[in-house]
Automatic annotation (TrEMBL):
<dbReference type="Pfam" id="PF16868">
    <property type="entry name" value="NMT1_3"/>
</dbReference>
<protein>
    <submittedName>
        <fullName>TAXI family TRAP transporter solute-binding subunit</fullName>
    </submittedName>
</protein>
<dbReference type="InterPro" id="IPR011852">
    <property type="entry name" value="TRAP_TAXI"/>
</dbReference>
């Protein structure tokens, strides 16, 4: 929320005296990163950051929808909000217009943490293995589905082991109840697995296997080929390897975000990278040269203005951005038509997914979620 009309200026950066954004809970790395950024904003621009913690995906979006905040330091579930799917297929939500400002694209990876004794060396070897499925965690399960697709597999090709949460998924692998679970390559519990009799293994995702990447990104468009340089010890990989990552947090803004805020904040983060890179955990990904400028959200016009100034915004980025804006238009039009239907609850959500798919297909755009 913008607290005062007054601004603090430094190097053509104009920021309000007060800024707020939503973030993961107070124990998360995303919250800690926000604290580090807030210290820089205060010292450099005399701008006070208010961090609004949200313990789940919907809670982090509520202040944006209600106008209490214009920005979210979100996880990948913000993409579900843009698409109007899963928890955002509810009649009270629908597709949200969100715009990227900048992201933290770290040098870690996201992958299947596989017990080394399971005999898996590439993703296709997961066929018939026991894979954890987290209840009420569509992002986690979709990530694993995309990884399986990389190897030409689906959930039907593996044994699904249902667990109530991520902590239990790690314990299931450690205790021999499962063979693989979704994790960051730097997740703390993986140290226990690596040191256990089962051991730990991360599969490589060769970047030149275009067909495999096409299959994976058809399930999870946010999958991005990455050189994985940071991982727990004992993962049975030799140095940096070809894998996958996606940004965390993703800093997204609503259309109501003022141009001066979108431009000023983007510039402040990019040009003060040296001042924030050690201010919190895993902050190396805020560097300008690590930004994904053709990704899953269109960029805010004022953020684009900054990237153009720096010479990093390309014609290909603009074409991708135009396509993403078109996608948001198609979804918004379909949602307005859907709201005229006299349906409630699960019946509304089921019909919306059909209407949504039909609208995207008619526009020649990938459906992704059905």
């Amino acid at each position: 929320m913008l607290l005062l009309a007054g601004t603090a200026q430094a190097a053509n950066v104009e920021l309000p005296r007060g800024i707020s954004w939503t973030a993961f809970g107070t124990t998360s790395s995303g919250y800690a990163q926000s604290v580090g950024i807030g210290q820089m904003l205060k010292s450099k621009y005399d701008s006070n950051l208010r961090i609004i913690p949200g313990e789940n995906d919907v809670a982090r979006m509520v202040p944006l929808k209600g106008g209490q905040s214009h920005i979210c330091a979100c996880g990948i579930a913000s993409y579900f909000a843009q698409e109007g799917v899963l928890m955002f297929a509810d009649k009270r939500w629908g597709p949200q217009r969100l715009y990227s400002l900048f992201n933290n694209v770290g040098n870690n990876g996201q992958t299947a943490a596989i017990a080394a004794d399971a005999g898996v060396r590439e993703v296709a070897d997961l066929k018939g293995k026991r894979i954890t499925w987290l209840k009420a965690s569509p992002a986690n399960n979709t990530n694993m589905a995309a990884l399986l697709a990389f190897g030409g597999l689906t959930w039907d090709d593996v044994e699904k082991v249902e667990v109530p949460g991520w902590k239990q998924s790690m314990e299931a692998v450690l205790n021999g109840q499962a063979d693989a679970a979704w994790a960051s390559t730097l997740s703390g519990p993986l140290n226990r697995l690596a040191a256990s009799p089962r051991g730990l293994y991360f599969p490589q995702l060769p970047h030149d296997d275009k067909a495999a990447w096409t299959r994976a990104q058809a399930v999870a468009p946010w999958f991005a080929p990455s050189r994985v340089e940071a991982f727990v010890k004992g993962a049975n990989v030799d140095g940096p390897y070809e894998g996958m990552n996606y940004p965390y947090p993703l800093f997204v803004a609503t259309a109501a975000a003022p141009d001066t805020l979108a431009y000023g904040l983007t510039k402040a983060i990019m040009e003060n990278f040296d001042g924030i890179k050690d201010a919190g955990p895993s902050m190396s990904g805020y560097a300008l040269d690590r930004q994904f400028l053709s990704y899953i959200f269109p960029y805010h016009p004022s953020a684009i203005a900054y990237y153009k100034e720096k010479g990093t915004w390309t014609e290909a980025d603009q074409a991708a951005n135009d396509g993403l804006l078109k996608r948001q238009d198609v979804l918004a039009e379909a949602w307005q038509a859907m709201l005229k239907r006299d349906l409630q609850g699960e019946a509304f959500e089921a019909e919306w997914m059909k209407v949504r798919a039909a609208a995207l297909e008619a526009a020649g755009l990938p459906v992704i979620f059905r």
